[in-house]
Amino acid sequence: MSTETLNFQAEVSRLLDIVANSLYSNKEVFLRELVSNGSDACDRLRYAAITQPELVADDPNYRISLVPDAENRQLTIADNGIGMNRDDLVENLGTIARSGTLDVMNQLQQAQDENEKVNLIGQFGVGFYAAFVVADWIEVRSRKAGESQGWRWASDGRGTFTVEETDDAPARGTRVTLHLKEGEDEFTESERIKHVVKRHSDHIAIPIFLGEDEGAEQINTASALWTRPKSEITDEQYTEFYRHVSHQMDEPWMRLHFKAEGKVEFTCLLFIPSTKPFDLFDPQRKHGVNLYVRRVFVTDDCAELLPAYLRFLRGVVDSEDLPLNISREMLQHNPMVQKIHQTTVNRVLNELKKKANKEPESYQTFWETFGPVLKEGLYEDPQQKDSLLELARFRSSERDGWISLDDYVQNMKEGQQAIYVLTGDSIEALRKSPQLEGFKAKGVEVLLLADPIDDFWVPSIGEYQGYTLKPVTQGAAELDSIKSGEDDEQQERSDEEKTSDAAIGTLVAYLKTALEGQIKDVRSTERLTESACCLVADEGDMDIHLERLLRQHGRMDQSSQRILEVNPKHPLIARLSERVSGSDNGGGASPEIKEAAHLLLDQARIVEGETPEDPAAFARRMSDLVAKGLQTGPVQGTATAATASTGDEAEAAS
After folding, report:
1. What CA–CA distance (Å, rounded) separates 93 from 82?
2. Annotation-wise, does 174 bind a ligand?
3. Which of 87-91, 278-282, 509-513, 554-558 has the lowest mean pLDDT?
4. pLDDT by residue (tens digit) across 527-577?
5. 40 belongs to an annotated ligand binding site
6. Residue 328 is part of which domain span?
7. Structural domain includes residue 546
8. 123 in a labelled binding site
9. What is the CATH number for 137?
10. Total domain count for the chain?
11. Residue 364 is labelled as binding a ligand
12. In this structure, are 340 and 465 located in the same domain?
């Protein structure tokens, strides 16, 4: 077969450029990454050999060999693991076929600080590509276990690589030969290699040898780190193990190392990263915890091991009781796995509670990073609802920073019967929502929820400590029963400000008629203090923001009709009320007032982040309104001011 020359995936080419410049000050990590890859390859073969023992019959002892060649300035990293064929080489060494990569690339290019770049690179693991920091040419020779054909991959990391058949491949496994750049001779020195392995890879459970001949020296402990007593493990060793299992380069935010004994015996060594993994929001939602059985790697894809809302965890779970040859299908319904799942989730959540109580500022940093993922459990895991609600933190309409639900309950006003929430696309937009005006006026706190999952867990939870979680965009505001703490005189509106109930009733009746078929109802509200109107969902109807999300994702075809609420204190509503109720000649039915009704509805839709039902008609009405305002006098500022004077202009026009 002739040599194929292929192009790196665009993201790989960009990554190689950034890695070469950003990792130079920490260049020894390349050896850790290549040794880690060799360890993974051996783990995968050991598991495959349980059902196919012939794969390792000729060479049952797994190992990784580091072979320096000072004369030719080369370093070879060899393993006798699972190996790769042509397709594996192209997929593993030529592409990063994982969602989120492009976003990381963009952030990398914008990063200014070198530490920031290293942390970003660590979000998805540079792995093999780190070798180009010290090598200007890399050759990979590999033969997949159980296959006869060997393959050679080679590249200078500058945009292309070659793949060809070769007889010069190991009997099984992979040999990575680095042709080191000038000035990188230190990585052919035995003591330097030993130092790097001791520092970064001593925890690798596969023996690592310096050399390949009979006199080769084992340079690592080769015992599974999680099996050692915690008192014998240093913080540095924990960190290096975390980087090994996570393929990230940051420091772990928290670690959890425990052994469970009883009906099911297993050991856990779990870490929470300090930065978001690049694939945190990948649709597959896979966790990053490997399952071992008696120190033998089984799988990194056991969905039943941990819930998806803990997918930010990295580490290992090692069971003493599961059968070594367990299949993926058997894992799905295995009661031992379910017990491991339950125990591990409880331990993780309890540790997070301790962290939240002892180190609240550090916990807030964790919440900002992983809170949107952890909240998925509020919708998906009813058994852990109470624990997750205790851990949850929220933004508030009344306070800066993060607050808990307990904080909210302690700050509730006299007469308040619900925990009020408002969902939307961003905290900044929510703070400007007209639905908050009446609550702000009474000092009633509203939780601001801007993560997509918030629209789903709020209705599923229902209540907390006996208080209903109530969206402020749904149903009546019910603010009358809440005491604000201010004098009654300050709360009452003066006769001049207050529109008579009769006048408002007439306007409401007219708006219902004018907007028939477009809205469900019209009513006067105490919800608003500054805005003229807003849209809300009826009690029992779907929340406005949730419905919009479902429509955007094709889960709903039509919009529900909403209730238009009007503010009787607003000058526009007051003038319209006077205009409609004071007409002796059917003024309420005049075309100008009808146009004003439609403008009110469109204005309310725009504030909710939606488009008018008929944008062309909205533009025409607004143009006509401004033109009439120019005819009758100077326009007061913006189009909003023009809208606010609709009543005057409509009266003048008539």
Report:
1. 15
2. yes
3. 554-558
4. 888 999 998 888 878 877 887 777 776 777 777 788 999 999 899 988 888
5. no
6. 227-360
7. no
8. yes
9. 3.30.565.10
10. 4
11. no
12. no
